[in-house]
TrEMBL record, chain A:
One of its GO terms (cellular component) is extracellular space. It is found in: Secreted. PANTHER family: PROLACTIN LIKE, SOMATOTROPIN,PROLACTIN. Gene3D superfamilies: 1.20.1250.10. Keywords: Hormone, Secreted. The keyword Cell inner membrane does not apply. GO terms for molecular function: hormone activity. It comes from the Eukaryota. GO terms for biological process: positive regulation of receptor signaling pathway via JAK-STAT; response to nutrient levels. InterPro entries: 4_helix_cytokine-like_core, Somatotropin/Prolactin, Somatotropin_CS. Belongs to the somatotropin/prolactin family. This is Prolactin. It holds the Pfam family Hormone_1.
TrEMBL record, chain B:
This is Prolactin receptor. Gene3D superfamilies: Immunoglobulins (2.60.40.10). GO terms for cellular component: external side of plasma membrane; receptor complex. InterPro entries: FN3_dom, FN3_sf, Growth/epo_recpt_lig-bind, Ig-like_fold, Type-I_Cytokine_Rcpt. Pfam families: EpoR_lig-bind, fn3. Belongs to the type I cytokine receptor family. Type 1 subfamily. Its main location: membrane. The WSXWS motif appears to be necessary for proper protein folding and thereby efficient intracellular transport and cell-surface receptor binding. It comes from Strix occidentalis caurina (northern spotted owl). It comes from the Eukaryota. Residues 1-24 form the signal peptide. The chain crosses the membrane at residues 380-403. GO terms for molecular function: cytokine binding; cytokine receptor activity; metal ion binding.
Amino acid sequence: MLPIAVLVYPLPVSLTRAALTPLPPPAGAAAALALLWLLICAPGDAGCRLLTVADLFDRVIRHSGRIHSLATALYEKHFPPRDNELGKSARKCHTSGMLTPNGKEYAQKIPREELTHLILKLLQAWKEPLSHFNQHIEHYQELPDDSLSKAKQISNMVHELKTGVEKVTEKMQSMGIISNSLNGMASSEATGLSISNEANMMSDSDFIHCFRRDSNKVQSYLKILKCRIMPENSC
Amino acid sequence: MKQKLISSVQIILLLALTAVGLTGEYSPNSCYFDKNHTNPWTTYIIVMTMNEIIGSNSSDPQYVDVTSMVQPDSPVILSLETKTSASIMSLWAKWSPPPLPDSVAQFFIIFPVHFLFQTIPVEVQTQYKVIRLHAGVKYVVQVCCMLDLGEWSEWNSERCIQILICEWIISPPEKPTIIKCRSPEKETFTCWWKPGSDGGHPTNYTLLYSKEGEQEVYECPDYRTAGPNSCYFNKKYTSFWIIYNITVRATNEMGSNISDPHYVDVTYIVQPDPPVNITLELKKPINRKPYLVLTWSPPPLADVRSGWLTLEYELRLKPEGEEWEAIFIGQQTQYKMFSLNPGKKYVVQIHCKPDHHGSWSEWSSEKYIQIPNDFRLKDMIVWIIMGVLSSLTCLIMSCTMVLKGYRMIAFILPPVPGPKIKGIDTHLLETGKSEELLSALGCHGFLPTSDYEELLIEYLKVEDSEDQQLMPSHDNSHPSKNAKMTPKETDSDSGRGSCDSPSLLSEKCRESRPLPSTLQTQDVRDVQANKGGKSSWETQCIASEQKTLLFNSESKKSSTWPAAQLPNNQLPMFAYHSTVDAYKITWSTTNVNIAPVLVGNEEKHQSQYSITETPPMCIIQGIK
């Protein structure tokens, strides 16, 4: 596939899709690989089409929806909260310290870059706790097999989602929709590590509750971001 | 009573200034009568006299009835308390009676309720319980006592004391409950609660909430917008992805009560309004069946454009009068529906819900569409032609059935053929056409017909005196015939060709054919005239006998042959049913039997014979 990417890249004129804006000058191999991810067929085929940002967004939104559904299913079925625990203010999610918009207006007001960055930060924050959770529930006797497999799936799915969002971000950056601010990305890695330790202290029920909430946040932010960037596509 | 008493005792009381009560109690201007001096059954007349140096003066006499003067002290109220049991409030009043030894006292309680005085007579007791107190009502309780001396029917005295004033019967309110919290567009939300019983007193409700992770408690920002017993949180106060802890407090004068806490995360309580602008359009493309296109819009409050709230829709429809069928549509706002039944009226409703956790909205208002009947002209023509043809066919069939019904039936269901003997037709037998029958059997001119008896008789006669009788008869007849016949008569014992054999019989019958007409007339005359011989007799075949026999049996006349004259038992043979049998038997027996029989009858039956047929005759020899 690489030769194709190399072939295509120097000839931006051949890309006749109207949705694609003219590509900026390449940023090296990374950009080439990014483009690679966007090609799903060899450009001579009749059905060949490039994935647009809208398509990518749809995919990641759908993916995040699936994650949320899984989390909800687990939450309701196997880790339902006991009533007296609900009000416990001691119950805190390890991501509670992150400043995230808690309403529509805030989500619409903050800059796109920040919103994107926030999404990635959230996803990063859950990476490690989920892997710990995976190991933990191996020994969980009460879960039936299908729920166990579902729970294990979650960490994979979150990883995929993060990859997808990264791709979308890069695409947007390459298209000039959002500015390149890579420094934000670096800091997210650091914060992610520090707060993930707290996650290990949570009970299973709290863990799933927090995760469910955060997956909903990610989904909502992605939707808002999409409709901000491309308001005409089914918004 | 009183009269009695008055008349009994009279006491004059002299009161001096220094007079002292007999028991030692002293109060100025009073006189005390102790127990010994008090008799309740008497009336005292009391006169006061004042003696002074200059003179004396006495008062008017005062009639005193002790019992009517009785005025007990008021009772002493000990306690008054309200008790609540099983949500019924009751009031317990306890008092102690006044010091009245050896007397019967009655107490009653006066209860002014609002402005209505209610007196409740109470027997001898010292406590009373009042039930059914109304909350929020002012009660005053009084206990009074009266003496009732049994016989005395009138209350003598009455004394009450007001025990209590202004004791409110009220209680603190019951715990309210929070019913539900809902957000219609994921931007604001409302909570509703249900009050408990308010204890009669106006109760204040306050909604308090706190947010997850915060200690501070806030009060509801808006009690009015969403109606009574509700709290509306507008955009400013609505936050997502945090849990609200909501409680409602009810307060009245007596106290307050707080509901159970209700935890809510606004993200998950979204229940949108139903979709709007539902349009149904029937599209009729050429050469294809019509289909229905439904379009609708999301509810006006829901902000779908920003992606904040994503709605999923579900449609349900049914032909009128049948069951609903639900179709999940997803996020699109239009739907095409094929395969609808033509001629039916469909009812359609749509509702929506947020794509992640939330509740379905109410169903939208019903929309109707009538699917037009789908008939093309071509189909109709075909049906009409078919209908006409089939009706014509039916008409023709019914006509043929009516007109030729039986034949048709016979054609369709032919009659079962009965058994049939070859050569013999039963109809011929029935109708008496023995000629035909015999011809069918191969025997022509065998039997004589109606005048057989006469002929037979003649024939027999001829037998007795063969030559003589024959001759005179033959004089009149054709001599040729006689010539023919004569030689045959000479031999009576030899085996003449009798009519046993059908072949011989037929020969003879043929020979004798031309004879009949003339001979018959002659025979009649001969019979009447004398019993002379008749030449023709011999030619007569026994077949004529047979015929007569048959005739007898067939026509069912009473036997012309008197049974008494029959010398033997051969007569019964006349009654044979089958022709064949009759033939056989008569053939066998006539040679012997017939003659005597026949003779006897001639006299009787002379006039009866009518010549209707001309029986063929043949010579039978050997017959006596």
